[in-house]
């Protein structure tokens, strides 16, 4: 296992930064467009209804337009505004301490017998705060297990499985929802320019998946991982570990007030949406239609619903002394997004060129012909997408980078054989989340090793991988089967989502 993971790590380290991947992909698209423009194809372009023709992008006029529109292409890139706005709101709630104490309180009220499922569950729920779970829930999981007389690495593994393995599960929408939706919609529009997709297109599935991940994590922790760890001796710690599960009376009071305000905001929004004449409804009275103000306000609502309790909590505890601290918190959250902004710049240029070239349409239609010739059931195709995503995740850790690369190819291809973008996105999320916990390319993997070494001094990648491999296998099999069950029963994936795309 160590040799295998070392080989994966060396291979992954040879890959360029995701931003440079898009630069290389852009260059490849330019070259391939010139090559394939010399051939004629029998396919009909679904956008125009005319014979498909690959456009030659190595053309003076096109290249001049590409450079002239480069800034506008970047600023109009759909994921950019959605992600940054969401992260600013979540960043305030996180830096104020509001999210941290919420997680602490959830852990403290849990009976000892339910520690394992509680830690996995809290880890999955913490995905709404992105990085908070890695730095808070995972070490707390180890501390709680050790205090209960159980192996601390079992608690660490359970928390890691919930936080990272269950990253695409959650009871509430997170910044990941509009991020992936925007990539999926852009990819779908390569095949159908008018296609629209709701940011919460997978919400019902991810909500239910929270409980599935909890049950699977509970089973793996108590039946596989914890018994295996009984032979792993816990090292004597030098000094005590910080008690991350405690909080003061002032913090408790601030959390109570902030949470009551958050609850009031939720009730006010519900009351606003309830009347048939509500301004949050679409013209036909629907709340869930993509055109409804409510659905178009998902990202601003995420921003406000995290910002408000975060500011109140910060003011009451002294974390935020004035408005400058609040703005500084927003600025701090943007610093962590600098690499994403750079990646988004190059990604937007690549997607524009890829769409203009018609190469994506050619790949989709030719791939659809291959899939139709193979005559595989749709369920088998979805399993293939899950497995492919897991393999790619071993070398490219960023969820958005992977989907930005493979989404424009597979989403249109699957649409051409009648599989909806919403279903393709759900399959991608399963493959990505299930393999997060075994890929050294995941940015927080070194942090997990450091947490592990608090209790086992000679722990390394192999130690973490041997703990997490059972979670990865069980999650991938169980979660994929759960998606196929959803499909078989016709249960809704999310708001406005379908399983099939009508083939014209």
From TrEMBL:
UniProt keyword terms in alphabetical order: Membrane, Transmembrane, Transmembrane helix
Alphabetized InterPro entries for the sequence: AbgT
Transmembrane intervals: 21-44, 74-93, 114-145, 201-220, 254-274, 294-316, 337-355, 375-396, 403-421, 433-452, 473-495
Molecular function terms, GO-annotated: secondary active p-aminobenzoyl-glutamate transmembrane transporter activity
Pfam families in the cross-refs: ABG_transport
Presence of the UniProt keyword ATP-binding in the record: no
Biological processes per GO annotation: p-aminobenzoyl-glutamate transmembrane transport
UniProt xrefs under PANTHER family: ABGT FAMILY TRANSPORTER, P-AMINOBENZOYL GLUTAMATE TRANSPORTER
Protein name, per record: Aminobenzoyl-glutamate transporter
Organism: Endozoicomonas montiporae
